[in-house]
Design a protein that fits this description.
Alpha-Beta Plaits; Rossmann fold; five-stranded antiparallel beta sheet; elongated; DNA binding; TPR_rpt
């Protein structure tokens, strides 16, 4: 005899997973809450145990086909492994260059059946025949016995009056109420006003479409105070927002040939643990984009608000620094007046982007604002107008919104680090601030970044990301002239990347960081290329990996390969907060290829964002000299020496990855020409 699937769970190490309910539980039976994207990914993997699920399939299921990087998948996989205790990666295995495979054993557990004994005579059966799509909902409510009719009718009259509804028809033991409000809310309201326990069943249709007997049978399955619904009803409810939903499974109802999929619903405000949980150790902040509201009452305008939100989600999802709630989740708030706190609690998000729009006369006006959930503070708000055609495509406004959202979140993180004690800060705040501060020239900011990373490594010792960033800090310490003894930075940096890769051998950030250390501190460019290649095999669109491999090609004088990779990285980071860094290294690639005009153009764009970046000034001065702009080149040399007064060509060559290549010698000679001392 086959096992009842509703009694089967998957054994995942110390945890168990119930396929039907999607619940993950620890060894003590307590529910484990995953991030929404991680939960969706585990659901798909659990449906295909023992099979390799491709990365494309995971993206289609979890992000609904949006353009996201492989790093988003890696974050979810790490979240699942961490919560099931899969330290050896034998339960959730990585299949190189293909995807992931979940290995799990099925086991049967005892499940308490629904009570089949007759209900107490004072219970009242309420069947709700709900929701005619265009005319609202019809609640067909049947009294259990004629003896209860008077009390039953009094309860229902009180309910209808309190809800502002009209009683359409009634009989000795039933009543129908025309209702346009949410069916789940109406059912919960019924429970609240009734003078005796109710058992409620809800089914789809209208009195003209179908008899109410299935709804009555659903109510008969329920215990006193419970609400049972059919599978059709779930299509019009949002779990976690309208109510919480428990899948009971296929049930046999009297007089109905086919099995009926039955569910039990709960008032989410009364259900512990129903909200999404923000993990304090999560290294990326999470944002929800709510569909923009139309300022003019036009059905087409409402659709435009959805389109704007979807375009922002699509572009923002390319960022490696921010988790973005899926459109299918955030769109549930399009027609609801939910508070910021409620949205944050239900979606597990740190920030909410919302706004208004108006289209008229060939112009689109958009007002947007970014709010922080924990404080309720508006971090950024502004308006922009653009010309639009009949398609109402507005890429300029979308890019404007995304750029300012990213900048506001980074700025907020740095401000919090300066104002609040480190133990009170979220982990993503520590990481974002550290990354921002280590790319500044100020020694105070640079060493503050080290303090932040050390605090984060202590808080989350099993996270590879802060360890890998600490390795990069050692590289930047040499490159920015902050190290008193550059020769001592390589070994601690390699120790850090080894620690990170021991924690996660497929961690792209750690592989790229090790390549960076091998390139810049050990000058082992062929070993570095192997690390970059491994990282890009795992995540072909990792922008930093592309950038640094391209820079490595430039150090070897391989200009065309350098341009190919660095240009690819630029396309992947149109709005990155550290765009100046990408522009600077792409300028280096063009300089290597002898395309000096392009190198100068990119260097100047980079310096507009960070005027004190010494590497970019070197590229600019060399490009100017090669273009025979001698006076300008020497002026750039003067600026460079003011920022880096101890710079010497001989020292630079001694430490440079280019020192063993002809290109490095040429670069050193040109640096002398712009005024850098021997």
């Amino acid at each position: 005899m086959d096992k009842d699937p509703s009694h089967i769970v998957l054994s995942l190490g110390d945890a168990t997973y119930e396929r039907q309910s999607g619940q993950l539980r620890d060894v003590n039976g307590a529910e484990i809450t995953l991030r929404p994207q991680s939960a969706a990914m585990l659901k798909l993997l659990a449906s295909r145990v023992g099979e390799t699920v491709t990365k494309d399939a995971l993206i289609d299921e979890v992000w609904s086909g949006l353009s996201v990087t492989d790093d988003s998948i890696v974050q979810c996989i790490a979240d699942i492994r961490r919560n099931i205790g899969d330290k050896t990666r034998q339960i959730l295995r990585t299949v190189p260059k293909k995807g992931y495979c979940l290995s799990a054993l099925e086991k049967e557990v005892a499940v308490a059946p629904l009570a089949s004994a007759p209900h107490a005579q004072h219970d009242t059966v309420v069947s709700v025949l709900a929701f005619a799509r265009r005319v609202g909902a019809t609640l067909h409510i049947a009294c259990g016995t004629a003896d209860n009719a008077a009390v039953f009718h009094a309860d229902m009259a009180q309910f209808a009056a309190g809800q502002g509804l009209t009683i359409a028809t009634k009989g000795p033991d039933w009543i129908e109420i025309a209702c346009e409000s949410a069916m789940a809310a109406s059912a919960f309201a019924l429970l609240a006003v009734a003078s005796r326990p109710l058992r409620i069943g809800i089914d789809m249709g209208s009195p003209q479409d179908m008899p109410p007997h299935r709804a009555r049978h659903l109510a008969a399955l329920a215990h006193a105070g419970d609400i049972m619904i059919s599978g059709e009803v779930t299509q019009f409810l949002t779990a976690g927002l309208d109510c919480d939903i428990l899948d009971i499974g296929d049930c046999v109802l009297p007089d109905i040939e086919e099995r009926t999929r039955c569910y039990k619903i709960f008032d989410r405000t009364q259900t512990p643990g129903a909200a999404s949980v923000v993990n304090r150790e999560d290294l990326l902040p999470t944002i929800a984009i709510i569909p923009f509201k139309a300022r003019n009452p036009d059905p087409q305008a409402a659709v435009l608000g959805e389109v704007l939100a979807e375009d922002v989600i699509s572009l923002l999802s390319r960022s490696l620094e921010i988790n973005v709630i899926s459109r299918l989740s955030s769109t549930k708030f399009a027609q609801r007046d939910a508070s910021l706190a409620e949205i944050g609690k239900l979606l597990g998000t740190n920030y909410v982007l919302s706004g208004r729009h108006m289209a008229r006369g060939g112009k689109l006006e958009v007002h947007a604002e970014l709010a922080e959930v924990s404080t309720g503070r508006i971090l950024w708000a502004d308006a922009e107008t653009c010309d639009v055609d009949q398609s109402y495509s507005a890429p300029d406004i979308i890019e404007w919104i995304v750029a300012r959202v990213q900048k506001a979140i980074y700025t907020r993180a740095v401000m919090q680090v300066r104002q609040q004690p480190l133990p009170t800060l979220e982990s993503y705040t520590l990481l974002m601030s550290a990354v921002a501060l280590m790319h500044r020239l100020s020694p105070d900011d640079f060493f503050k970044a080290k303090v932040l990373l050390e605090a984060l490594m202590e808080r989350a010792p099993n996270q590879a990301a802060p360890i890998a960033w600490m390795a990069r800090w050692h590289v930047l310490r040499v490159q920015q002239g902050q190290s008193p003894d550059p020769g001592t930075e390589a070994e601690p940096a390699l120790d850090l990347t080894k620690r990170a890769l021991d924690l996660d051998p497929d961690n792209v950030l750690a592989l790229v960081s090790e390549g960076m250390v091998l390139t810049n501190l050990k000058r082992q460019l062929h070993d570095a290329e192997e690390r970059y290649n491994r990282a890009l095999d795992i995540s072909p669109n990792d922008a930093v990996g592309r950038l640094l491999r391209g820079t490595m090609f430039a150090f070897r004088g391989e200009g065309q390969d350098a341009i190919r990779d660095t240009e690819h990285s630029l396309r992947l980071t149109p709005l990155d907060p550290l765009k100046f860094f990408f522009l600077s290294l792409t300028a280096t690639a063009y300089l290597t290829a002898g395309q000096n005009e392009k190198a100068l153009e990119l260097a100047e764009l980079s310096l507009r964002a960070n005027s004190t970046h010494t590497s970019t000034l070197r590229v600019k001065g060399v490009a100017q000299m090669r273009l025979n702009r001698v006076k300008e080149a020497r002026e750039t040399g003067v600026k460079l020496m003011k920022l880096q007064p101890n710079l010497r060509v001989s020292d630079w060559l001694r430490l440079s990855p280019t020192r063993d290549y002809a290109w490095g010698q040429e670069l050193g000679n040109t640096m002398k020409e712009i005024g850098i001392p021997e």
